[in-house]
Amino acid sequence: MCQGGGALTAALQVSITITITGTNTSTKCSVRCEAIMQIFPRAGRLCMEAIAGTLGQMETKSEIRRRLLDERRALDSAEAARRSGFVRERLWTLPEFQRAGRVLTYVSAKDNEVDTRAIIERLLAEGRIVACPQSLPDRVLAWRKIDSVDDLTGSRYGIPEPQPERCKVVAPSRADVVLVPGIAFTREGHRIGYGGGYFDRFLHDFGGLSIGLAYEFQLVDAIPTGPHDMRLNLVVTESDVPRSVRD
Q1: Please, which residues have CB within 8 angstroms of residue 95's CB and are 6 or more apart in sequence?
Q2: Tens of pLDDT along 123-145?
Q3: What stretches of the chain adopt beta strand conformation (E)?
Q4: What is the pTM of this model?
Q5: Residue 5's beta-bridge partner residues?
Q6: Between vectors from CA 119 to CA 121 and to CA 201, what angle results, nearest 5°?
Q7: What gap in Å lies between CA 62 and CA 111, rounded to an integer?
Q8: Residues 6 or more apart from 63 whose CB is under 8 A from it?
Q9: pLDDT digit string, tens, across residues 163-205
């Protein structure tokens, strides 16, 4: 959060509070500060200094990605499995997830991601439809229905994908739920992925419910966002289910 200093509050008998999520927010706040400056020059300058100081302390996307990837990689396999189990059980408590007849989900494969293989197997055992992504050129995801984890095979990125000759392409709909990977998330639904942009592009036109899966330490207060970064509806961790205002 970014707040005007005590002198500003005393001068105007107001407090200015904004959430730092990107350059658009800082621009809007700067305009407000400039308007204040025209009436109260000293208070306006304090307002601008407060914003500049907060923005200057904010981590970049690359810094957040590197820090949290290092922390996730440092988990041993038993701890990652234990935490994934808690995330999985909390996911199953969501009425929206319980109602979903078809679930689109990433396939966990690296850096101690929240495990989705157990999720896939449980969904299939319950008789629900599961589709996993195949990466195509131009950062496009094609979703293919699988009947077993044996339908998945290695891809050029090292991430298991559905075998095209065995798995039919399905068209995502508003009734679907999608499970989204990521490295960092906020409680407002913002996320930092691996940087490829595949899921952001997919989510731009997806009308169903989007759920991020994460460990508690992957929740951060704020992240820089751009016009192409898409927000999620929910983020499920071991102990919490933050809901986005997009919900």
Answers
A1: none
A2: 999 999 999 999 999 899 999 99
A3: 2-3, 17-18, 102-105, 129-136, 140-146, 152-153, 161-162, 177-180, 184-185, 191-192, 209-213, 234-236
A4: 0.76
A5: none
A6: 115
A7: 16
A8: none
A9: 999 999 999 999 999 999 999 999 999 999 988 889 999 999 9
